[in-house]
Amino acid sequence: ILYSFPDAGSLVSSLASFILKAQKEAVEKKGRFTVALSGGSLPKMLSGLIGHPSVKWDKWHVFYADERVVPLDDPDSNHLLCTDTLFSKVAIPPEQIHAIDTSLLDDLEELADTYEKELIREFAQKDAARFPVFDLILLGMGPDGHTASLFPGHALLAEDDRWIAWLDDSPKPPPKRITFTYPVINHALRVAFVASGAGKVEMLRTVLDEPEKGLPSSRVKPVSPGQLYWFVDDAASAAVQYS
Ligand code: 6PG
């Protein structure tokens, strides 16, 4: 489902309504709302939720779809970005915001394992599922078509077992990152991309209209009953033909 908006304001408010609907369904069903966030411009696009009376922040359980392996106060940290943009302005209980364990910055394998165990604690005992089922995963799309830290041509595109993978060769700095794998992304109930600006126009067209090219963003295909959504602006979607 592709939603395109004439300006940032209408994108932000429609995205907020969409997230609130997802939150309501999740809280009614399970008493909690599990969400994964990304970096880039995404946290800023959630500003429509700040101060909104319907948000039940105490029900939110937040993970990162990808994170840079840097200290939490490093300007490159997605956690810092999300904290500055969102968490510092709303009331999510701190223990429900899952940041990386920065005592493990020098051991990527152990850091990724530890983050995977946090997901297992949150999901596996409850649903005994092979993969976690997030209520909502919010993603951005990079200019090369990457999403989370899944980059074009990278070996991790084929990872089908682990929940959390690590890489130390990200083509976009910083090189060390952890990322959700496709099985995790594709088992979510809702995956929503948020992309805006004329700079995205050609890549968005390629990702949506030429999925056979296999760009990382095209490989996001939630399994039933999961649904894929794109929240974009008209500047970004101007060249899309068929989607
Ligand atoms: C990163 C960035 C990156 C970003 C996309 C989309 O991990 O290096 O966070 O993945 O999210 O490039 O960026 P925008 O949403 O700002 O266009």
Automatic annotation (TrEMBL):
Q: Its Enzyme Commission number?
A: 3.1.1.31
- Name a single GO biological process: carbohydrate metabolic process
InterPro entries, A to Z = 6-phosphogluconolactonase_DevB, 6PGL, Glc/Gal-6P_isomerase, NagB/RpiA_transferase-like
Tell me what reaction this enzyme catalyses. 6-phospho-D-glucono-1,5-lactone + H2O = 6-phospho-D-gluconate + H(+)
Q: Which GO terms describe its molecular function?
A: 6-phosphogluconolactonase activity
Which superkingdom does the taxonomy of this entry point to? Answer: Eukaryota
Name recorded for this polypeptide? 6-phosphogluconolactonase
Question: Whose protein is this, by species?
Answer: Mycena indigotica
